[in-house]
Amino acid sequence: MTQPLTNMQMRDVEALLHPYTDAVALRQTGPLVIDRGKGVRVWDDQGREYIEGMAGLWCCGLGFSDEELIEAAREQLGRLPYYHIFGGRSHEPAVELAEKIKELLPVPMARVFYQSSGSEANESQIKLQWYYNNAIGRPGKKKIISRIRAYHGVTIVSGSLTGLPANHQDFDLPVDRIRHTSSPHYWKDAKDGESEAEFVARLKADLEALIEREGPDTIAAMIAEPVMGAGGVIPPPKGYFEAIQPVLDAHDIALISDEVITGFGRTGNWFGAETLGMRPRAFSMAKQLTGGYAPLSAVAFDGDMAEAIEANSGRIGTFGHGFTYGGHPMGCAVGIKALEIYQRRDILSNVRRIAPKLHALLDRAAQHPLVGEARHCGLMGGLELAPPGRKGFRVGGKVGPRLSAELLKHGVILRPIGDTLAVCPPMIIGEDDLEALFAPMEAALDATMHWARAEGHL
Ligand code: PMP
């Protein structure tokens, strides 16, 4: 039986269209209205407490209501609440943050360009690739390779890079020039008896075949998340990037690392590219860049690109790309503070210390008959649900949300991605809170299994 909606819930469904929501079902249940947060916890408007196991949307690495981040925002708002960096203007927070980002990146990068979101960062990446290839006299080298199950955003081009059906269906995506190669999801996609090494060799061959089919001279770049996030938390099999990097290098195809989730410590290094052995020519960053406290994203690209792009802007008389809020002073001030905190409080060490604990908890949960596979890398993980002995349900996307709803009853917020339960706690989480996050898992899995059986999903 569903409860009658509260006044706030009724106002909500009359006023908002919610992202990633079944609007028809929401009219019955109403949204969960979150009112405040502190540390790794949030409270709803009825005063109920939850552990936030997803750091919001993979972004609140420092948890909620960090006083230093709040103060950095307040100070900047008091001094210069807005200025832009168009047409020869600048401000110190934009410069200082770009310098800090360049220092932290594992591969030397020449320039930083700002936007507000991860989608816009990837939109900029593709425009920069096209502009660069025109600038150096390669107008035919424009296609971009992405991967099935990738998540790179939802704008027209970033949504095209995303390799998930829900982001394409009825949106008339993907647009031209985007190609998707196979997904590095060993558990789901490996053939019977195929070893991890054989699987990697097959993915490499798939990529080579795609490049051959399209023509290497028509392909500008490949974009990849070091660990796939919103596609189901999928760390690549061992040796994956080591296998594909030479293929890209051989055809002068730039690798773009989408570090929107993995950037700034999430995998135990500053960037996922370090953890996964990638040598990117460009990086996309957002989310933990400001700990989620301000909408800000950045792309960084190498010296070759910088030289050609800047020279071309000289020929044309301008660089015709930029966002009103790209490099927003408050966002940059918060970003500077967030990076300083990651260093001063040694957040990376906490990630490295806590990650094995998270992995053990996920592996233990995987003993449950409803869990097909546990996946993890650093402080991110996923539990993929499946009927015993199978790789997926007949009707996908029903059982995962049910598990998430069961956990919510126990005061735990974890996000279903189809039938995978994603886990991505704030990077400041301690052992006790991590235990608390997993405490109701067994009971919630049992209840979900009971429900799934009754509904005919098993
Ligand atoms: N890239 C990756 C890897 C992401 O995880 C996301 C968001 N989850 C995006 C891009 C898009 O970011 P945004 O929602 O800020 O547009």
From TrEMBL:
One of its GO terms (molecular function) is adenosylmethionine-8-amino-7-oxononanoate transaminase activity. Transmembrane segments: none annotated. Keywords: Aminotransferase, Pyridoxal phosphate, Transferase. Signal peptide: none annotated. It holds the Pfam family Aminotran_3. Gene3D superfamilies: Aspartate Aminotransferase, domain 1, Type I PLP-dependent aspartate aminotransferase-like (Major domain). GO terms for biological process: biotin biosynthetic process; gamma-aminobutyric acid metabolic process. SUPFAM superfamilies: PLP-dependent transferases. Belongs to the class-III pyridoxal-phosphate-dependent aminotransferase family. NCBIfam families: PRK06105.1. This is Aminotransferase class III-fold pyridoxal phosphate-dependent enzyme.
